[in-house]
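Problem 12. The chain below contains 390 residues. Write out its predicted structure in token notation.
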Amino acid sequence: MTEAMRVGRGSLARRAIGRGAVVWRMDWLLLGAVLALSVVGTLLVWSSTRTWSSIEPTAMAKKHVINLLIGLALYSAVAVSDYRWLRTYAPVLYAVALVGLVLVLTPMGSTINGHHSWIMVGGGFAVQPDELAKPVLVLMLARLLARPSERDKDRPRALNVALCLVLTGVAAGLIMLEPDLGTTMVLATITGAIIVLSGVRKRWVVAGILLAVVAGVAVWSLGLLKPYQVARFTALLDPSTDPRGVGYNSRQALVAIGSGELFGKGLFHGGQTTGRFVPEQHTDFIFTVAGEELGFVGSVAVVALLGVILLRGARIARTSNDRFSALVAGGVVAWLAFQTLVNVGMTIGIMPITGVPLPFVSYGGTATFANMTAVAVLQAIHLRSRPFSS
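Solution.
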């Protein structure tokens, strides 16, 4: 081996594991929480699908593991890359997301579990463009609002704020045609959070809140919601409403969580889970599996791990180097926090039932990819918010 080759290998080793290398500068607490939730989610998916899987008891769990491995590959690729290229290609990614949302409404779209939100790609796998729209919208809005006003460098331009509302409205409108109220609410939350974080004047924030209230009243008054969506809201106010429909789902979810008591019945030993008394326990209602089989302690642990991700994300937003990265991190935190609130809240009766999965825990392919990509961007921002060691 020549001297040049030895020097080259030594330099590569120092860059890989030496002082200042990526492996030492990563936010391992963030990654650890994601991996822990993924493991817990896989066990809960296995427990909730083993009695009805049409192929074998572990079929759904194995498929979930495959999705996780693909998601981790995406995480690795994005986390070590320069996140600033995402700013450059955000308009292209947004256009691709819109194409996907349009294709869902064509004969290419498929209905799964009552939601016409999927495009089948073969091999038993499907893509849900709704989920891909979430990270893409975060990037697009952050790109627009990171540009300061010519008069006030600490605030975004009014035209860009208006354009953000238009872009969100187009995506949300396509999603509501499916219809998917849960994802529409997530997009609205992302938009509101990023606009607020961008430093707009308080009167704009107040005007936005009033506009949202007026829009909500108009949607309700004009009957734009489907009957089952209206029933979900009325069941929240009065659980005795529709005891065999939406009210039944809410009551069974509470029974499942309550039956776990402090330490749970044990993994694979939940009667409500085994009997499939609660619908979609591997996706939207997976928190009921945690409540029944892992108990109060296990449920709190799941929420605590999600809290770690949110807190690390908030810290990354505070320590970021530029407005774009700060807005991206803030948007991701708002997105994951809202989904956690809605998913956990609907299982314990404080939020209406919507098709919103629990991040990193619920079964899902496209949702897993979107979530992993989102935290990978947080990791990429973190890696570049700290100076390299010499």
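Discussion. Residues 286-319 form the longest helix (34 residues). Students who got a different answer should revisit the alignment rule from Section 12.3.
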